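Incident review: delayed structure delivery

Summary: a single-chain prediction request sat in the queue longer than the usual turnaround. Root cause was a stuck worker, restarted by the on-call engineer. No data loss occurred. The affected request and its eventual output are reproduced below so the record is complete for anyone auditing the incident later.

Affected input:
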Amino acid sequence: MKRRTFLFASASTAVLLAFRKQLSFAKGEPAVKLEPLLAPFGGPNGGVPPFDKIEVADFKPAMLKAMDLHRTELKAITDNAKPATFENTIVPFEDSARPLNRAQLFLGTYTSTMNDKPMQAVETEMAPILAAYSDEVIQNGPLFARIKTVYDNRDKAKLTTEQKRLVEVIYTNFARRGAALGAKEKARLGEINKKLAGLFTTFTQNMLHDEETGMVVLEKEADLAGLPDSIKAALASTGEAKGKKGKWVIANTRSSAEPFLTYSTNRALREKVWRMWISRGDNAGAHDNKPLITQILSLRGERAKLLGFPTHAHWIIADNMAKTPEAAMALTMKVWKAAVARVREEVVDMQKVADAEKAGHKIEAWDYRFYAEKVRKAKYDLDQNEVKPYLDSEKLREGMFWASGQIYGFKFKQLAGIPVYHPDVRVWEVNRGGKRVGLWYFDPYARDGKRSGAWMSEYRTQEAFKTKTTPIVSNNSNFVQGKKGEPVLISWDDAVTMFHEFGHALHGLNSNVKYPTLAGTNTKRDFVEFPSQLNEHWLPTPEVLNKFALHVETKKPIPAALLEKIEKAKNFNQGFKTVEYLMSTIYDLKIHMTPTDKPIDPAAFEKQIFKEIGAPTEIVMRHRPTGFAHIFADDGYSAGYYSYIWADTLTADAAEAFTEAKSFYDKKLAKKLHDNLMSVGNSVPPDVAFRNFRGRDVDTNALMRDRGFPVLTEAPK
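Output delivered after worker restart:
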């Protein structure tokens, strides 16, 4: 998941050196308090975020100060009496808002990773203020008039291809967000966005509350039946961290719950853990997200109509590769049919195992992972417990580094003494050909105050605009730590996710464009998951597994026989994986394509649509509505969760290019990938960029082949 942090489509990196002189503070307000949040990064390695100097109390005054600075920058643009040009309008706009963007970077980092009560209070107060200011910028009539003038004359002006692209992206962003509306409509739009910002914040904090307070405590050792030693140790460690020393605790996180659901032989406990996990934000009372979702949907629907679109989905997707929600749904449903058929087969296999063991029950949602693991062992002689001792998170991190070196020429050097926001965080300098490319931060472990899941963020975006600026990117995971000093063993799924998020980081690190608005991961939502999903394909390569999948005790590489089993089982349980994802996708698309004239009950809607499409009852959405942060914690992936399957059509086709080259480490193809896709950001339209790489349009049937599904006679467009 690519976490989007900034509100503004302008630069977020190095600011004019004169910035420090521009800062003016009220009497008695020490500059030192606000500079860490607003000033250009100083220190070694091209400058680093001063996490050691950040104070929660400084967020509000710093952001208010940054807004004033930005207003001054915009006034200088609109006060210019000369006709609008690229140089006197687009250039200063692109160079504006740097202090504010830096402050928002820190706010996003702390609310995602260190979200204690004081930080939650700041987030609650600042979210609507920031939303209102974003609208103030978009609704600045004189500013938009100048931008529109440059846009209207872009073909006549002597602009480079990248400059023209920048003009189009900035203009489109303003136009799509209501810059051309009348005064009354703009006022209502501002009210809607402000309300949504508050609802998004409350939704997130409700989820965080349930994740921090929800747990299943195991009192006796018999409750650990079926669990491998590594999971037992992790649960004991979690118990100690949660103040339950001597007991075992399953936390309300995916990395804690799913391993238990896979191995526990206690069916009643499996159901208890499963219900805890799927019910985040769905527990009635003060932290129930259902009423918030109803309000969010209503406001989004009203906003879409104000902006000239029938629904929120039509507004969001109009600027994506898919163009229409109908196109996104068409691809989704064609894959859905094949995936559901595969689930029916998987359930039959699992039920046979359960019946043979005289279990006396039908397969339910809390049984799926448990019996799937039994079928995997029976069909492929592959036990995930047999694989896990080879999946040391630190060795796999080294494997990611090595693979990126083979493909992109990167070398990583760990740095000491760099300020971080938590002791878990480590920092590496990334070099290529002896030159610094950027910095990579890694925050791998779960803790209270950190949201669940895994994601990538950018602390600084690459640019070659005013000065050459290298990117700073971060990856966050939620691995469960065992005993102190012992290796952290992770599941195969967590290893895939680790490579996935690193793919986002590589997208940011490889960026080589002039303007920050077009750099790195600032691409179409349904394209941004392509580099991350493609990077998953390097994990199962023999080169990575032989070198870095070393047994935690013997240090011997993973045996060839086990590698062969992994390869044969690569599409095992693909029905489940695809259906649980597609259920979330279909829910997201359908609920955002539904008119909001009447209030929508998110729980009733969930039951209704899955009954209509014949969803398997043995599976629930990967993200149930009240815990679906992708689409309800902000606008980021709303009506856009389909992006993963859309991007995976590109991924599967690109992966086939490496298969055709007979190696995922083919140097010629790797260079082509870098030059045409990984380095261009949004300076080239994504469909054009892919065509430049592959030599043709995408073959969407590659997705069906990759998942082991029957190939469609006519590939979805």
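Verification: Residues 325-356 form the longest helix (32 residues).
Action items: add queue-age alerting; document worker restart procedure.
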